[in-house]
Amino acid sequence: MAAEHKKKHKKQYHSGKKGLPPGTHIYTGKNKIEIPVIDIISYDETSCETSHPNLSQTIERKPTAKKEWININGISDESYVRLICDKYGIHTLFQEDILNVFQRPKVEEDSKYLFMTFKSLNWNEENRCLDEEQLSFILLDKTVLSFQEIPGDQFDQIRTRLNTDGSIIRTKEVDYLFYRLLDVTVDNYFEILEKLGDYLEEIEDGIMHHPTAQDLEKIQENKKDIMQLRKHIYPLRDVLNRIISTENDLIDEKTKKYFKDVLDHTIQVLETVETYREINLSLKDVYLNSLSHEMNRVMKVLTIISTVFIPLTFIVGVYGMNFDNMPELRWQYGYFYIWGFMIVVTLLLIVWFRNKRWF
Q1: Does residue 260 form part of some domain?
Q2: Which of 43, 134, 158, 252 could serve as 48's disulfide partner, Cβ 3.0–4.6 Å?
Q3: pTM score, whole prediction
């Protein structure tokens, strides 16, 4: 099932943009949402209001004195992205990046806004693999725009804090909200690493006790997951470094220390990813060694059985010859003597192998 799931993710959608001019609005993903959902949270130190307007209501909204978080769930309908971005003066090239799910994580600055796109990753427990989602944030003077590829996210804790009187998010500017959204996403990477680590331990235990061909397949799939993590998190480190070093007035100097903390977490994630990468490589060696050990054990058993039967085969071969003048052939109890002799030889060989610790 996991392998089947992976094959589905290999399908590419770049070909739909071939030959089109820059800034063309084409969604390159596969998560089609029939009607995107818009959530708007307006807040200040004393109040917080949540609304769910449709597209036309969102476009016609008048600016308010409150700070706002506008979240768009679903980017498969290009008109939502285009119209909302046009309302806030977002360049068409950035709109194209929002719709391009293969976009490398990056941050871009403008005089009126800061644009950032990266990946939200989730561990698929059923298929034991990573699922990725395109996330894009736009930081404006009093507003944060967020575009999510699919409904459902890890930001419920932030919504709860916004609806809590006296919370620090409500007292600070929207650059702090921007930081919190990014921080929650990076913290979610730790949960993924924890589950991936448990899965690696599970595979290792299986390999040590009873290695199978499925274990090798799991190791190869883990390799892809780890490389996927690495591919999306490495650029995020550069993105955070750029945010910390920016002179843009949208990010206050006091808020940059929080972004430094997110950078520390990102580096820690990267170090753990590299550790898991080495562990996964070593699991392949453990698998081959366990398989070799299992084969040696089987060969040892077969060797013992063969060795035990060699003298027995010799004895019955000798007395199976068709000669008239052979000793012991006329003994009244010769048949039983031979059986007894063979049993004694067998027992002696077993004791000898036991003393040699062959089994």
Answers
A1: yes
A2: 43
A3: 0.77
Six token digits for residue 186:
């990076």
Cβ–Cβ < 8 Å for 73, 133: no
Does a structural domain hold residue 6?
yes
- Whether residue 312 lies inside any domain: the answer is no
* Tens digits of residue pLDDT in 20-31: 666 677 888 788
Residue 301 identity (one-letter amino acid): V
Q: Tokens 């004393």 sit at which residue?
A: 46
Euclidean distance between CA atoms 193 and 279, whole angstroms: 13
Cβ atoms of 273 and 192 within 8 Å: the answer is no
Q: How far is CA 7 from the centre of its chain?
A: 15
pLDDT (tens digit per residue) in 59-115: 998 888 899 999 999 998 888 999 999 999 999 999 999 999 888 899 999 889 999
- What's the half-sphere exposure (Cβ side, CA atoms, 13 Å) at 344? 7
Position 215, amino acid = D
Query: Are 223 and 283 in contact, with CB atoms under 8 Å apart?
Result: no
Q: How many CB atoms lie within 10 A of CB 242?
A: 15
The whole domain housing 180 covers 2-290
Same domain membership, residue 341 and residue 232: no
67-73 and 143-148 beta bridge pairing: parallel
